[in-house]
Design a protein that fits this description.
Elements lengths: L1 E7 L10 H8 L1 H8 L5 E10 L4 E8 L2 H11 L1 H4 L1 E7 L2 H10 L2
Length: 102
């Protein structure tokens, strides 16, 4: 199942402005790939960031949102940001469901 992880931080805790945050950020993808093996996380589909909005958007293929929550704690995302985990569907899959119900 796909999940969108929306992580928003303040300008003060932004890796651009905060050395501790920068240290976490520089190793974030590497640490996520290492730590996700402990949970039912299949892969990090993509990792986007909007610098001026101070938001990261990570698309993750996982079994449970709780595993993503644990991952965000383990790698330090939750120490920098407020995190929202949202289940997502591909447009094509949703379209198939609609077509099947006609």
């Amino acid at each position: 199942m796909l999940f969108g992880v929306f992580a928003t931080h303040s300008p003060e805790s932004c890796p651009i402005n905060n050395e501790n945050s920068k240290k976490v950020f520089m190793k974030l993808r590497e640490n996520m790939e290492h730590e996700m093996k402990k949970y039912e996380i299949n892969k990090i589909v993509e990792f986007y960031m909007s610098v001026l909005e101070h938001e990261w958007i990570i698309v993750i293929d996982a079994v449970h949102a709780h595993d993503i929550e644990k991952l965000c704690i383990d790698v330090g995302i939750s120490s920098l940001s407020t995190v929202k985990i949202v289940p997502m569907n591909l447009y094509s899959d949703t379209l198939k469901k609609f077509e099947a119900n006609q």
